[in-house]
Amino acid sequence: MPGDRLRIAICLLYYVPHRTGLTIYVQRVAEALAQRGHEVTVLTARYSNLLPRDEIAGVRVIRLLAPLKVSRGW
Questions:
Q1: Could you tell me if 15 and 42 are in contact, meaning their C-beta atoms sit under 8 angstroms apart?
Q2: What does the alpha-carbon distance between residue 54 and residue 58 come to, in Å, rounded to a whole number?
Q3: Cβ–Cβ under 8 Å, residues 6 and 38
Q4: Cys-Cys crosslink for 30: which of 6, 59, 60, 64, Cβ 3.0 to 4.6 Å?
Q5: Cβ 37 vs Cβ 19: under 8 Å
Q6: What is the C-alpha separation between 55 and 49, in angstroms, rounded?
Q7: How far apart are CA 38 and CA 59, in angstroms?
Q8: Residues near 45 by beta carbon (within 8 Å), at least 6 away in sequence
Q9: Section 19-44 average pLDDT
Q10: Considering the domain boundaries, does residue 8 fall inside one?
Q11: pLDDT in the model for residue 70
Q12: DSSP three-state, residue 3
């Protein structure tokens, strides 16, 4: 049904192509929701101009400028 389509925003520091357990999990969930017809947007940091921006596998990706780099490890 058209009324069942959701607009979903997911916010996290790292996203594809960064590979961590969290990014892999979020990528799988986001892509599965997009395949079901939902509008999924991932909001994440932009550490490099080379990172993909617009859409990855049906998921809209918005990368915001990150003035500080935060380590992925402890």
A1: yes
A2: 10
A3: yes
A4: 59
A5: no
A6: 15
A7: 9
A8: 13, 14, 63, 64, 66, 70
A9: 95
A10: yes
A11: 63
A12: helix
Number of domains the chain is built from:
1
The pLDDT of residue 1 is above 70: no
Model pTM score: 0.81
Q: What are phi and psi of 68, to 5 degrees?
A: -125, 140
Tokens 């969290």 locate to: 22
Domain of residue 52 covers 2-57
Using CA atoms in the order 20, 61, 9, 19, what is the torsion angle rounded to 10 degrees? 0
Q: Which residues of 18-30 are buried (b: 16+ CB within 10 A; e: fewer)?
A: beeeebeebbeeb
d(CA 26, CA 11): 10
